[in-house]
Amino acid sequence: MAWFKKTRKPIEAQEKPSSRVPEGLWVKCPGCSQAIYNKDLAANMHVCPKCAHHFRVNATERLRLLFDGEWVEHDANLVSTDPLKFTDTKSYSSRLKASRAGTGLKDAVIVGSGTIDGIETVVAAQEYAFIGGSMGVVVGEKITRAVERALERRCPLIIVCCSGGARMMEGALSLMQMAKISGALARLDRARLPYIAVLTDPTTGGVSASFAMLGDLNIAEPKAQIGFAGPRVIEQTIKQKLPEGFQRSEFLLEKGQIDLVVDRREMKSVIARALRFMGATPGHPAATPAPAVAEPAAQA
Amino acid sequence: MPAETLDFEEPIAVLMKEIEALSMLPKTDARQSEIDSLKRRIDSIRGDLYRHLTPWQRVQVARHSNRPGLEDFIQRIFPNFVEIHGDRRFADDHAIMTGFAEYRGEPVLLVGHVKGRDTKEKIFRNFGYARPEGYRKALRAMKLAEKFDRPIVVFVDTPAAYPGIESEERGVAEAIAVNLREMMMLETPVIVIVSGEGGSGGALGIAIGDRILMQEFAIYSVIPPEGCAALVWRDSGKKAEAAEALKLTAPDLLGFKIIDEIISEPAGGAHTDHDAAARNVDTALGRALDEVRALDTQTRLNHRYDKFRNMGRLGFEFVEEL
Ligand SMILES: [Zn+2]
Question: What's the CA gap between B110 and B96, in Å, rounded?
Fold first, then answer.
């Protein structure tokens, strides 16, 4: 497989226009209405220092927050061919073009490998600013390759989920990415390699019904919206209002659906401890010996 | 003759009314020959209509209340069915049915959505909208089949997984996700037949297999056309446009290699002739099962993996820009 490699300096891989944090010097926190100095917010991992409201951060920032230093990006240049030639009020190809210009990315996920507390790890982070973080063939392919890379390197995999679900404009092909990625995760699972899903706001639809819920640990950020069906669809179906906090991280934790809720400022430390528990150590990606079953045939 | 005619079958409905009126009158040879000629005319019109169905018309046919489903196929090609119930965790979901039966003299496990035909049944089956326990029941039964090395035949026909509070509370997303992962590794042949509505994740949650067959007028979609229309056109009335744009028909999906084969239907759709529809399903299923059963387990698993791995191919659905 022709992996495209590019080294990024994390210091330069900074704010993209996709960041939810406005360009101005000050930002008003939606949680506590306080004005926060932008630089303070950035220094605090985009978490409000007063009320701990988690601002949405872009995919590049996600990698920067998790990796120790530099990372190598993979498959950055895969682009959708718009296989359905989908057009609604606008053509999908023009939506793709606008999202590419707006984010500087070619699709809605970044995959990189680097180290987390010295442990070699593959990380995929979804980009919400790119058509709602939706999953089409490119996102499906990049994440599948990330899983296969972790399998090949015998190292842990982390996926930071941030997506409204499957990408409607790629039709059933998008739907099938759920199966494709879950299949690859089956092999990772059987190879006893660590996989941690980090669920951020929002993690819904087809992403929740595939890799987001398949981690050895499924860790959510506080108050993230996590669920399968859209709240409006549910309200229309049951003809009643949804309870306060429905489909939020804390609701899922209470219902036993996720393993833990972790503040972004603690996330890396918790992940590093989890990876150690799962047998990953610095220098030796995965201490767990390969199981006796035959390794799957390599992909063309 | 189906009780329900669809809106685009209006010319047929008119002729059927004429036949009905003629049948009420005293029988004469002349009247009988007129009735016969009207019937031939209906067959010919129906044949024409169904050769040129639009995507939206296919959606209507796929949702037809008389469309044969799992229970109809059980009656015709899977003798000695014994249903098993429940996920052993919470409840028995009635929108997904499973159990063992015989197929061509050999034991098989059957799994499928059931929508129900009359109002009472539809409510009992929750209109084919499965809850988490349905997906968990299905997987439990499939592991049973794996343990005893019996093939699995799946019939897919659901609008979607049930979008309700309890579905979310009990982890419908997790239930579907686990099925996707585990079905990929089942060490027994799995044949999936999309027989009606392949409604997004709710369909896919039991639809991983070695062969994906699809009946001619069935549909398979990431989102219902009405939902798509409401989302992008802000007008659910644009459902026909959405159905067109989503490429949800069997020929479209065959082109994308999402399905392996189209099972042809009787001229006016499967709902007009359950026996003929079942015969076609039988023929395709028998062949597919023989093919995958001939493979050793590891080869079969590798092929199953590769099939889904290749949905979205370099040079077709995506390219690498340099
Ligand atoms: Zn605040």
Answer: 10
